[in-house]
Each structure stands twice: as structure tokens, then as C-alpha cells.
Amino acid sequence: MANRKKLNPDESPRAAFGVRLRTLREGRGWTQEDLSDRMGYSATHISGVEIGRRTPTPKFTASADKALGTGESLARQGAAARESAILEGFPEYLALEMKAAEVRVFELGIVPGLLQTADYAQAVARGAVRRGAITEAQADERLSLLARRQSAMERTPPPLLYFALDESCLRRPVGGATVIRKQMEHMADFASRPNVVLQVAPYAVAEMRAYDLPVNLVTMPDGTRIAYAESAQQGRMERESRFVAPLFTAYHHLQVEALSQAESVAMIEKA
Q1: pLDDT band at 8 (very low <50, low <70, confident <90, very high)
Q2: 30: domain CATH number?
């Protein structure tokens, strides 16, 4: 029980489902193995759902309702969890990011969330709503989660934050002229913080750019290093050193190829 993960039901609908499943199970005095025997799912799978790492499928929630005698209430809550705009895998990463000693971010095409102003973030979310990619409720969920992420970066002592932005992040006029101007001003101010390194990888880096997709790299207080990246459908955490170490090496190479912080801020201010 020493490594028991604390759950925050406000983190996401998936986390709320996990909290309820664990509460119901423990209220009956059952272990995950006990529930596994009754549901036909492995204890590992149940654990993944309880900590928000796995999405509760319709088949899983129906089996849980039957095992726990909860009618169809878990099935209904599971449906809400599946409608979350937060990708599977992200809540687990978020829990680590909020405790990390160092956070490294590479982004292209859009300013990364930790650097976004409220207006810029809202423009991105509302654009997704207009495209039909997410609902209004899901947009609000994303914005609420982003506010919590940004707030966590203000903790004492603050984490070291490294940002390597592809030049395309500065060229995409999200939200119109006023929004993008305030966003650029915010980034220039943010770069002056003593715990922040912000660099732009200009188009001239060309084939020497280390990544073709966004990536987040965190270093925990104990030195553990973890990578997180997203596809269109889910996020993936990587903990194995043989996979994580090359990503950190690539990030360092990208920083060498990118503009200096002074040059980067000058480009941001010009943008």
C-alpha cells in the first residue's frame, strides 16, 4: 500500500470513474484480484482503470455493474469518461509533470499549453468546437485542465522549464491579430523568468530538427526521466531508459541548432 496512487476525481471524467470504481471495490472489502475473479478482467487492467490510465469500455463497465450490483450507473459514468477530451495516457503524465524538477517541451504549429494565454487557449479550444472535433463541455474541460497545469508551474520551488518551439508556432495567427500579439508578448515576458529557457528552432534548421512530432520530457526530483508523446487518438508514456535517453539526447541537439534565447525573444517580439 506504500505505493498506492492518490486519485483526484476532479482531474478528468476518467479519473472520477477510477475513484468511484476503487471506492466501490474497497467498500466491499475486495482486492483488485477479488474483483478480477468476478469480472473476468485482469487485476492489472482493473488497476489501470482505477488510476485513470485505461479507458473504461462499455464491456468493462457492464461487467463492473454486474459484479458490484450497481445497476447501470457505472455504464453511464463510463460513457461520460469516454467522452472526455483528455487523451488516454495524459492524466498519468500530468501527475508527473506537476511534481517534476525539470520539464522539456518541443512543439510545432501551435504555442504549447504551458505558454498559452487564456485568450489563445480559448481560441484553440473554440476552433476545435467549430470543427466538430469536441463539444463545448469538452472545450471547457480542456481549458480547466490547462489552467491547473499552468498553476502547478508556479509552485515553490518552481521546476526548470525548457521550451524549444518550431518557428511555425510563431507564424500561425491563432485567434487573430490582437490575441496573437498578446501571446507573443506573454512569451517574451515568460522567457525572462530565471527558471525558464525558451528557444525557437527556425525553419533554417531544416532536416537538422530533431523531432517531427511534439514531445514532452520530464525529469523527476529523484532523477528519473520520462517521455510523453501523443498520436491523434492517445498519449503514450515511455519510462524505459533505452527509449527515453535518445529523446533527451535529441532535445539537447535541437537546443544547439536552435536560436539562442536572446535571438529567440527577438524573433518572438518581431512576430
Answers
A1: confident
A2: 1.10.260.40
